[in-house]
């Protein structure tokens, strides 16, 4: 085939070795002692050899408490999913600077769970099976694989289907975590062509697929997937079984001791820690084959995908071949370029790849948002391997006959500096030999995979310098032009890049962008250890942690609107997720007053690694709720009360269990956003009786998204939850408790009341309903109740029948007033909002009356002002 020889080959240069010297013995060694055998014989073609590599020797502290405590790793890798499982990419520049081949310590890792532990002495006897629709099922050891088959060595780029997903997540959160543009790496893989093994097992005529299964046991079974049998048998597809990477035995994260390598396809098909090859008539039915690595149609929302299995089971949406993609690596993110002096040119550089073995045939650069393009130079280091025929790391390099391109290539373009200074951005796009060109527009999909729109780096001129910015930074790392645009309310939709297509002006100046609320004392530099924090896991002096900062909640115990218990339940814990999910900006702005220091590094690690208290007790508990531990209740039934209101029934742990919620108190509900997996936490009061056993009912008004807004996150997520799935609950919380017969506790202080004024709106009726019901059910309870229930439409009134049934025989102590702002013509009740005047007209104000208020924030605020103006004291008002 024709090979491309570019003079601009500046990237791989540093990896081009002098002429390789000696050959390896025909049988490769079983341990890592061939590391230094970057040796070859046969001809004098210079191929790119691995960069210098140093295998990490010690396990990082952060991994010590995880199931991967046996895996030494490189600290430079950026963790994308917290501490564990290990999903990482290298910093983009570090990856690119290594050149054509990546050292194993910087090679990206995608692990769905814990890394199987395989000791060196176990490697020779590692077994895998070939089974299913074969006439000769076999079990093969790694020693047999090495001795009884021809060994080959071949450079291959693996790419995770999630590469560049952070860009999708910036536009709309997908179900996947945020890869930057370094979710790919290249290595020389040594092993055996997979078809040779399968041929010996003799597939039957019905055989169509090769399913692969790893040794990593995950929540939904062992990791597994499949590819077509005829691809495996096609020499041009290059599918292999590999045990060496860059001449070393595979490291634990990359499948030690054996993995499949499926070139040209997404990394997800290259099963690590390989245990089984199962030949089948149908594609794999492994959970990870079905629910991962798919591009569902763009209109399938996270909720739709959760509710409707059919999207996942449609093989048309499974991803195999990679799509065409490219990235700019130089200029780097935040690189600054001096406009003065020489040289006049700036050399832009980056990578490109395509799928299915297709060659990248052009890479184009635009400095004017795609109106004009210029051709970049392309260097295919892989081609050098086609020109040679030699032994390398115990395997034969023999690619001269094969035209497929399985590796990334590098592009470069020299651009005059003054042209960069006059441009707003640099775009790159690549095209492959089938004329598959990267699109301008993003194809958003639920899993956020295969993201490949034009890659854009922005340019801003600052005096004599220009500064470049990449679209994003991986994981939760801040930075990138997409984040800026988003904060400024700019348009990230296709074709806009946050700006008007024709216009040049930036959307909103940086200084006008939304300011984050600071929750710390600016000058406080106190470091707090984990022992100090744990000493304050007390009711009297509760300390808690939000985003690594420590707060002392003691002074706020009495005032906290959720009651002292809300703070006590967080004592000694990292409550970042909960705090951020439920607190308003006003609450956050109060936090510096309670800030007492920052957790030290060891304490942060310890807190990250400490899991939530597991339920270890064998004895079934009488009550479900616990203040510090989230319990799981399964959605058992859903009754549609009106177009937007539901009663959800949740099943508790066992049929005799009670919820354990005192009258007047609430519980916290936690659900994961179906799209982002972020925690959504809200407090609710159930409808069901306090002493009901086995089940609990919750009345919920669903705030649907519409032209007016995004709707309620929690209520929509609850509504989207399929029957049989769980929500999490903990509690009780709340300042107020009704003990019966006029006796209450307010912040644990007893108080006697003769009457209640109960003001509510919408689903704010639920806590009021609990107290009202308790009073109406007890013939000895003479406490008077006047309910003011404000709603918009007649159909918005909740629990109307239940309230009426309870008050029917209790007229001497119950008054219920409904008022509507959009009442129908035949409505004979009150009209308008609940006002201070309405309360004054219907209730007498005295010291033994307590006002309970629960409704939308605006209503609570206006009632607060009106009641104070009418002479009520704050200690007579109780806001839920
Ligand atoms: N094989 C097993 N057994 N378990 C896994 O979690 N992850 C897959 C694939 N093979 C995975 C696996 C995915 S999604 C990718 S992208 C590649 O491994 C990553 O390979 P690497 O970690 O060696 O880079």
From TrEMBL:
Q: How is the cofactor bound?
A: Binds 1 Mo-molybdopterin (Mo-MPT) cofactor per subunit.
Pfam families assigned: Cyt-b5, FAD_binding_6, Mo-co_dimer, NAD_binding_1, Oxidored_molyb
Molecular-function annotations in GO:
heme binding; molybdenum ion binding; molybdopterin cofactor binding; nitrate reductase (NADPH) activity; sulfite oxidase activity
Record SMART domains? Cyt-b5
TM segment ranges: 177-198
Q: Which residues of the sequence carry a binding annotation for Mo-molybdopterin?
A: 160
Q: Which residues form a coiled coil?
A: none
Looking at the record, the residues that make up the Cytochrome b5 heme-binding domain are 525-600
**Family (UniProt):** Belongs to the nitrate reductase family.
Database matches in PANTHER family: SULFITE OXIDASE, MITOCHONDRIAL, SULFITE REDUCTASE
Describe its partners and assembly state.
Homodimer.
Q: What is this protein called?
A: Nitrate reductase
